[in-house]
Structures are given as C-alpha cells and as structure tokens.
Design a protein that fits this description.
Order of helices and strands: EEHHEHEHEHHEHEHE
Structural class: alpha/beta
Largest sheet: 8 strands, mixed
Number of strands: 8
Strand order of the largest sheet: 1-2-3-4-5-6-7-8
Strand content: 15-25%
Radius of gyration: 17 Å
Helix content: 25-40%
Number of domains: 1
CATH class: Alpha Beta
Amino acid sequence: MNIHGLNKSTLLDYPRHLAATIFVGGCNMRCPFCHNASLVLRPHTQPIISTDEVMAYLVKRKNLLDGVCITGGEPTLYPELPLFINKIKDLGLKVKLDTNGTNPTMMRYLTDNKLIDYVAMDIKNSREKYKHTAGNKDISMDKINESVSLLLSDIVEYEFRTTIVSELHTEIDIEAIGSWIKGANAYYLQAYEDSGDVISPGFTGPSKETLMQYKKLLSIYVEHVDIRGLD
C-alpha cells in the first residue's frame, strides 16, 4: 500500500464516527475536477507513510477511534488491500472504503469477508457522459454498473455521492443518475471547489439554488438525499 497521507482524527469522512483517514496514491480515472491531483498524477512525488507507522498509530488510538476511512486515489487498485484492512479489523475498528467503483470484484470480496462496514461510491455523472467526466474513455461501464448493482443489493451500508460541476452536470444528467440508482438508500451532493491541487483548473461550482433543485429532483428516486458543505 502506497500511503501518502494520514488524517489522524476526523468526524467528516465517516458518517457518525470518529475516524482516521488514510490516503493512498494512484487512480485509474483522470477526472478533470479531481481535487487530489498530486495523489492521482504524481504519487511518486508525495511522501510515503509506512504501513507499520500507520498501524502503530491505530494501535495507540484504537480505544478512541471508531473506525478508519481508506480513500485516495483509488484504494481498490491495490491487491494487498484486503490484508491491510484485515489488520485494521483485528484492532476492532470499523472500515469505510471510498471508491470509484471500477473494481466490483474487490468490493465483493471485501464485503463477503466482512472486511468493510461502509462504502462511499462516487457517481461521476450520467452513464452517457461518464467516461468524459471521468477523464478516461477506457473505463468499463459494465464494472461501474456492477458496483452500483452490488451496493443497491444492500450487501453493506453505503452511500453514493457526486461532486457537482457547473460545466459538467445538467438537470438532464441528474435525472438520469436518479433513474440509474433508483431505490438507493443515500445519495449526497457536494459543490465543486478548487482545492488548489486540481487536475484541470477553471471549473466552477453550482449555486445553492441549483443544488437544492437537484436534491428535489433526486428525492423522487432516492430515499435520503442531502447536500454536503452548505453553510
């Protein structure tokens, strides 16, 4: 595992839990609005934190933390992910996985073996505009669809989420996404913000009014829809 970041304590990354967040490098998407460009494009330039160091911290804090969020980059690119998670689970901690959904085989393995407790899967856009929004024409929509179906089967607690970019998302896209994930338990929207480490700067975020309209549209299809980051 190429770990490039460790947020030692947060209430933001794992709903209803105090968690540590682990950031891994590398991704098979090139979303132009990605706010972790260094982790995606230049992970070799980022400091590496050894798994031993991470585990030592978790051992020390296991009685204070509820869980661990593993994010990236894309964690499911690492074949050793199950072994790493198993060490975390041995400490009695819950594990949340952030994923782009391109590796449903890994997701199923992790869920079947009770290695993850919560999944947050990014929905980049409507299926028609997915590859363009993800910045990779070679990604498999069959695998994305499989991951969506897997989560809709309630195999694990989950949420879908989308970063809304004014230049990439329309009401038509939002309606299409809602129809796609119809029956989902939870779907969160968040407005794009330039982090200063974006793959392609120049995008803008939607207005609060636009987000509220999207939420209204999606509530027809999804049980719980909310907006993260609104003041």
